[in-house]
Structures are given as structure tokens and as C-alpha cells.
Write a structure and sequence with these properties.
- The complex is a heterotrimer of chains A (about 280), B (about 325) and C (about 290).
- Chain A has 8 helices and 15 strands.
- Chain A has about 280 residues and is of the alpha/beta class.
- Chain A is globular and about 55 Å long.
- Chain A has 2 domains: about 90 residues, Beta Barrel (Elongation Factor Tu (Ef-tu), domain 3); about 120 residues, Rossmann fold, CATH 3.40.50.
- In chain A, helix 5 runs parallel beside helix 6.
- An 8-stranded mixed β-sheet of chain B has the order 3-2-6-7-8-9-1-10. Chain B has a 4-stranded antiparallel β-sheet with strand order 5-4-12-11, with no helix packed on it.
- In chain B, a hairpin with a 4-residue loop joins strand 4 and strand 5.
- Chain B is globular and about 65 Å long.
- With about 290 residues, chain C is an alpha/beta fold.
- Chain C has 2 domains: about 140 residues, no CATH class; about 140 residues, no CATH class.
- The chains are: A alpha/beta (about 280), B alpha+beta (about 325), C alpha/beta (about 290).
Chain lengths: ~280, ~325, ~290
Amino acid sequence: MNNIYMPHLAEIREIIDESPDTRTFRLKFKDADTANSFEFKAGQFAEYSAFGDGESTFCIASSPTHKEFIECSFKVYGKVTQSLQRLNVGDTIGIRGPYGNWFPLDELKGKNLLFIAGGIGMAPVRCVIENVLDWREEYKDVTIIYGARSVSDLIYKQEIGEWKIRPDVTTVVTVDPGGATPSWDGEVGFVPAILEKTAPASENTAVILCGPPVMIKFTMPVLTKLGFRDEDVYTTLENRMKCGLGKCGRCNIGNVYVCKDGPVFTYAQIKKLPQEF
Amino acid sequence: MEEKIITKEDLLKLCDDIIAKGHTLLAPGIAEYVPVTNASQIQLDSSALPTKASYKSYVFPKAEPILYYKRSKNDVQLIDADVDGKKIIVLGAKPCDTNSINIMRHLFNWDYEDKFFDLRQKHFIIIGLMCNSFDDYCFCTSVGSSPVSEEGSDLFLIPLDEETFALRIVTEKGDEFIQQYSGFLKEGDETRSFAVIEKVKHPEKAFDSKQVHEWLGNNFESPKWDGIGNVCLSCAQCAFVCPVCHCFDIVDEDYSYSEGRRMKNWDGCQFGHFTLHASGHNPRDIQSKRYRQRVNHKFRYYVDKFGQILCTGCGRCSRGCPVSIDIKEIVANCKD
Amino acid sequence: MEELRKYAKELLEKGEVAAVIGYQQVNERRTKPIIVTDPADATKLVFNEYCLNNLSVYFTRARIRSLMRTKDKPTKLAITAKPCDVHSIIALIQENQIQRNDVHIISFYCHGVVRDFGCEFSGDYLASKCITCETHKPLYYDKIFGEDKVTPQASDKSLAKIKELEKMSSKERFDYFKSEFDKCIKCYACRAVCPLCYCQRCITDKTIPRWIESSSHGRGNFAWNIVRAFHLSGRCTGCGECDRACPMDIPLSLINRRMAMEVKDLFSFVSGRSLETPTLVGSFDKKDNDEIFM
């Protein structure tokens, strides 16, 4: 029988320091068969192993349309992320996955897309954006609103630069008041305020929203005010997980298991859940 | 269902044979189910209360390796962990224990199949024994079972008198197992065993599980949880002695600079750090939320997912609770 | 009993205390803790030989401590405590976990409690700590009920076991504890019931670095139980709650009692007996034997 807890091995090909505490690994599966057969959809997550210290859960941050490697971005917080941070290019990590559900990009074809992200919440959103940009003709207007505490906390600076110069994408980047540098040419203000100022059209638009709970709390009323329906707002929940397989018992919110029924939920679904997350 | 008769003497001979064949024979001991090395140690007492711990650890060990790793300069080598496929025969399992593997099987097999659980449970033969006693903490009848329930048993024993048992063949697995001992069996007489079963006193039904299920769905924010949360001390005794609690942790353990193993260990939802995020955020930050999770998981979430109550009514959690929290009383109180 | 209920009710009604941490009868031979905040519930309070819990553990729980701040002015917490539980309260005060002024101790003359719920109160089933107990009257209290009675006679089996272990070779002793610790399932009930295990984050829950393996195999179990014994040396007051709470019947108090004997021999110190004497670990005496420092 297969061991469902057995990770695939992958080599770190490249390390990108996104911000002082956030790092991206570009990973290549060691086994050629796995590299060819590993498929996932935007929004799914995986369990990443630092052998000796354990596993940690992050979304897959690269687009499923990029077959040659996968990427993950993580903020250094706990035991496993500290251990991952000590690894270098050429070192080996473990990957189990992909797990969970995904953003319904097929169903959203023909719609406008509004991406709103805060801080490290850009990681799952970036995966969707890159995916959408590869299928650009399938979607109408694409708007990206991204905020972080300060200029140095903005992640994916390279990608943001590329989105900014694209004529078919509206990109608004903001930092919290006090977080700007003298040379900062973007917006200054919290994400909900910048969203209100940008005021994207709600007609035939789906929202992909990820960020800290406090940002989501204050962004939702603005979206409602702008005419967005809860059913059209997609977000992800991040509960503590160990197995990712619906067994270890940590990530449930009521009878919803975030690792199996999530991590992607519409805001309408989240409102129906017991408020315990 | 086929019914046979076996004398106690022959049953013990059968046990000696099981031991001689090198299988593990488990029987209720003082605190837990223990491996028997000599059939004379076996007490087949239908009036004994449940042991302090169930035989859960034999199918879902308290700590087990799930893989081994070796690190060299840049590389890592992974070695799969094997499951010891030893046959385990449980003799004299209480009806409140016999169904535990069936209940947990749902969890370990929905979508992803946990080979560690599956390979172990495949090698189990469960010989249940009718139960003829209960105390204040027993409530099997409230969760759809009973002291004479054969559910989960492969073979089921009913004491007819001091020296003889009726042996009911419940499953094909049980049938296959007992065939090799057919010399010990005589034809059964169902009227005798039915007469015994009829006299068994059942614990009074303490609650209606359907009503509890409904109440839990409407009372997530009930102040009742606060009161329990104040008294509960957040140990996981209740989860660890429970025959069906199955939450676990996954941790890495180095045993040298370059080698180690990944372990799957019992964990409990009553621990504060169970759901603690690395950021410091904790969705179940206080004890009342954790106790609410425990009751809801057993009587609502598991029912919604798998159509099965995650409780056998054995009462172990209440009997052993250091602060005498009685789950039967709490669940019975899950009404307006 | 009526006196106790009346007294508790008055304390609550006058607002002198925010809550009374007490015992409630479950059945004839079992009681359980109850946190009384409503004066009407004071009628549920009891005290008898089945009051096994050491309720001082609740002083270490944030939710219970927060009750002291629910009213406009800071209010005390009352506790019904056996004389031996008062030792734990003293230890907690000495370690600055609570202030004497925050606690209203309602105590009793005590002639012993049963070993476990459901037992008959007699010498055969007397709790181990009661056999040699010399504190029938609490050392500190704000109110006392009852009268002094004689404790049933019983033999000190726990001391006999300690003597037996002392006579063993270290290999035999190791094997004995190995077989006991093998049973440990790491449910941490011993830690949860212990009034002196009050660390916000226990060393066994720390992961960076992980000092104690969380797996309940031989190594992890030894590490946990030995570290706990060290951390309680000179602090454990011998209430025996860990013994009672252990679902696997590991005789934890043998270790704690043996360590307490060692501490008494070396430093003439017994934990939780005086509000004037500083704690053992928190004080230094020039007469202390240098060799005991690591």
C-alpha cells in the first residue's frame, strides 16, 4: 500500500529573498516521473518538509501553467520555516501534495477579475494572477490591488514590476501610512481605503481576496458598498494543519475541514461557518 | 448468524494455541488490554467494567514511525516505514470497544487511505463478550449500542453458565478463523443464549442522539460551554483513553546528526497549542471552545461526515476525568 | 455543611469574593469541582472525605483569575481547601503566582480522604498522603470549619516501596521505572492537575529547540517524567494529584516524595509550609553544600 505521508523530494534551484522575513524557493522534483506527472490547480496547497524539523503548510505560489518548476513562499515564523530558511540552493526538501480545492478559474472565464491581497496573502493570489495572465484572452478586465505594511514588506517586487507595465492589467500597489520611503511612487493607505478610491466596477466581476483577517474584515464592507456579492468573493482560510489529508483533526471549522473542503471558500460560504477561525 | 457452544476449558485451549502460533492475544487486564502469555491469566468476566484504556493503541499506536530519513551533504534519502503484520486476537472485548475500529475506519479511509491503520486492522480478530454490568458512567444505549451488541465483533461470546459459552459467528472473518478450531465447538442452542441476553440489564438511555445533533447545530454560542470551560483543566486524558479519538501530530525526531524518523503521535483537541498558529493566532484559544469542539466532533461533525457517532458510550473519559466532568451529563444537557 | 454554605453565600452576597472554588457532590462517593459565582449556588457546596481534588490548581488558570477583575474593584477568590491544599496555596503565594490578599481560604479540620472515588473511607482505602499527615489543622486560613478527628490507621505502602527501590541496584531501579514509564501516553494529566505546573508554556511544548521529544516512547517518556521530577523538587507539596490523575496508574508520587525527602535531608526544607521562609530554589544560603550545584 502507498504511504500517504511520504513526501516527494525536490531540489532548491533558486532562492529569492522577497522581503526581510519572506523567502521564495524555486523547486524541481528530483524524480523525473514526479516532475512530469505533478499537476495542481491555482489555490491548492502542499506540505513542505525540512527533514529533522517537520512539515509546514503553504500554498503553491507558482502558476500551474509553469511546468518546469514549482515555487513556494513562506514567512519565517516557527520551527519549520526557520529550518527552511537555513537551507541553500542545491539542498533537498520534501513536498506532499497537492491538497485541497482551488479557485474556479474555468468557471470565471469571461468575467472581470479583481485581485486584492495584503502582505504574505499575495502568495496564493500571485499563483492565480500568473495563471490568468497566461490565459489572458479568456478574461475581461484584470485589476490588482496589493498592500503591505511598508515598502520593504512588499513581496514579488519583480512580478509587480512586470504587471505594472502591462497595458492589459491595472495594478495598484499601496503601503500602510508610515511605511513609504522617500522614493515610493505608489499609493499610501490601507487596502480598504485604496479599494474604495480605485472603485472597480462590480458588474460581472469576481474578486480574489487574500490577506490578514483584519484586512479582510475591513475590506468586505467596502466590497459590499461597491456592489459586489458575497458569492463572487473568493478567499482562502489558513488553519493549522499537520496531515493535509483530513485526518489529524486540527483545521476543522465546524464540520468543514479546511484541508479538504478548502482552502478556497467564497465569502458567502464563510459567513455560514461557525465563527471559530 | 450461526451459533455454537464452547466450554471455558476449550476456549482456554484455543487461546494457548493462538499464543503458541505466535499471534498476539489481547485480553482485558487491570488497567488496559494486555498481551496474554499464558491462557491461565485470562479472566472472562462479563461483569467487569471497561478497562481504563481501550485496545486502540494496537491499531493506532500512541507513537509510530511513518518514515525514516537520512541526510547527506545536499541530499536526503527516504525509507518507508513498515507495518508489523502480526495477527492480533482480542478476547473478551466489551461491546463498547468492539465497534471502535469500524468507527475510526471511516476517518482513516475517506479519500486518502492510511496504510498504517489499514494494515493493522486487517489482522484483527475481535472476540466480543456480552456485558453484564454498568456503572454511573456507562451510556452505550444512548449512542445506539447496547451491552449485548455484536457490532464490530467477528465472534461473540455469551456466558451460559460458569463453564460454557455460546459462541456466535458474526462475520466471515470470524467464521474463517474459528473453522480451524471446529473440534472445540458443539452445536448451539439459541434459546439458551436468548434467555441469557433477555435478562441483561441495560443502562438507561440518557439522551436522544438525534436531538443532541440538532441542538448542537443551533447552539454553537451557548453559554453552557463557558461553565464547562472553567472547570476543565485541559489535559487530554479523555481523548487518550477514548477508544475512538484519533487526532494526531506529525513530528520529526533526529536520532543522530544525519538520521531520523518522522513520527505520528497521539494528540488531543483539549491542548491549547493543538490549533495554535505559528503567528500566535489560535482559533480555539480558550478551554470552552475546545470542549465545544470535543462534543461537537463526537455528536455532530462526525455524524454529518460519516453517519456515525464518534463515541461508543464506554464512559472511560468521565470515569477517569481528574475533575469529574461527565460527558454523558453534558450531552444529556444539550437541550434548551 | 450548612455553616459552610451560609458562609460562602454571605461572602458572595457581600461582594467580598468574586467566586468560591469548591466541591459539589456527584454521587455518594464522588465529588467534583464547582466554581460558584451566584450566591444561590452556594447550597451545592460540600466538604467530606471524598473531596479529593486539590482546587488550588484553579488559581493558575487565566479564566478563573480573570473572575477577580470582573467587578469594578479587584475582588478576592475564595477557595475551600483541605489543610494539605493550603500547602499548595502557600507555595503559590511564595512563588508570586497569587497574593495572600487575593485569596480567602476556607479550610477544615481534616482527618483524611479516600484514595480514589468510589472507595469506602477506612484505613484500607486512605489516600497515601493522609497516612503520615501531621497537618490536621491548616497552617493558614481565613475561616475554619469542623473539628479534629482521628485518622484511620494504615500502613505506609508508598514509603515501603521507596525503601524497596533504594535497596535495588541502579540497573534494577532503572528497569522498574522503565516499565512504569513505558505505560505513559503523554496525556499530561499529571501536569494539568498540578498546582505548581503553572508555566505559561511548558518546556515540553517548546519546539525551538525541542528539549523533550513529544513521542510517547521510552526516551520521550523518560525525558518528560524526569524533567518534571526535577522541576518539582523542592516545590512539590505532596498533594498526590498527579498520581490520582494518571490514567495509566504510574506511581508518580513515589518520585516526587523521594525528591522531597532528599530536599528535606539536604536543606531542612519542606515546600508550602511557611509564608515567612523563602522558596528553596529562590534563596541561597552560605551553609548550602557546594557539591549539589551543577
